[in-house]
Amino acid sequence: MKVPLLDVPAQNQGLRSDLIATFEKVLDSGYFILGPEVEAFENEVADYLGVSHAIGVSSGTDALIVALMAAGVGAGDEVICPSFTFFATAGSIARLGAVPIFVDSEEASFNLDLSGVDELVTEKTKAIMPVHLFGRAAAMGKVKAFARRHSLVVIEDTAQSLGASICSKMCGTMGDFGTYSFFPSKNLGGFGDGGLVSCEDGENAEQVRRLRNHGMHPKYYHSEVGGNFRLDALQAALLRKKLPYLDSYGAGRAENAAYYLEEFSKLDPSRVTLPLGGGVGEGVTWNQFTLKVHGERDALKDYLMEHEVGCEIYYPVPLHKQLCFGGLPQRSLPVAERLSAEVLSIPVYGELGEKRRERVAEVVNSFFKL
Ligand SMILES: Cc1ncc(COP(=O)(O)O)c(C=O)c1O
Fold this sequence. Notes:
With 370 residues, the chain is α/β, with parallel strands linked by helices. It contains twelve helices and 13 strands. α3 (36-49) runs parallel beside α8, α4 (60-70) crosses α5 and α4 (60-70) packs across α7 (202-211). It is globular, with a radius of gyration of 21 Å. The protein binds pyridoxal-5'-phosphate. Pyridoxal-5'-phosphate is lined by residues 59-61, 85-86, 88-89, 131, 157, 159-160, 181, 183, 193, 195.
């Protein structure tokens, strides 16, 4: 049995007729950029998150860029971020001429580790960008205390963790800005690129709204330079149809994760480490289920591929080792480097079904019996 790493069509299949009707409605409206569908979607996401403002933008990357711009980050400024994350986290900082200051990660949670980071702060440091990686909240208590100590803006990269929470606080709503992605494989998967910025502060929200539309205010007047970071009406209208199911998609992944944690509980911990289960007060959304395989990760990857079980290395190169950042001062970040050598993510999407997840477990378990 073939098990793909992702199965995006399966999730949308159940909503097919509603999605087609929505497409036709937008088609007939002739209103394709921003407008009432985007506003309605923004209000619904703001309600879901329990936050005052939500601003739809063109992608998760653009959400980061526009939040950084609204935070006043520009050329020469420094922004603290983890090295073990998707490229966009640091790419967005670099795109503005600012400098990513890479920090290491916690071994168990995959999220940034702030120990020893106080000494990296300089007068150029403007912001800190925690990433809620793989569906699990970063240690926001520590992040906020750190930010307060050094007067930094907090931008939460929540691209992978819409709906995740810690102590009943939604990821993305604990700092100054939260940024989200609707890339098709994300917790709320869209039909192309899309993203969103959330914030509590009304002035920040107004600035993000201006910046996403060339800094224009009022029409054809520009006191600042923004960009075209607008969300399409079609994207918003289709996402509105999926938003009510967001928590049920997460519940499906959580069920698969619980199944794997049980199935793999007897594996030799010197060969493989399982991801943490959800701790007390932690709402994990399992955007990925990521094993750490000690010394034989690539062999397991080949074995899974041979047996037609999809898997992927998120991420094979920590960002401080990427060629494009080779000109930055280099520090060793041992955990990020080790994670990149050991991680392997396996299919966890809610539509996996019992047969396919049993097959995944069977193939993984059979590798460790070799
Ligand atoms: C951690 C993280 N940040 C940012 C992004 C960028 O989102 P998008 O692909 O919507 O631009 C992603 C998407 O993969 C991500 O995983």
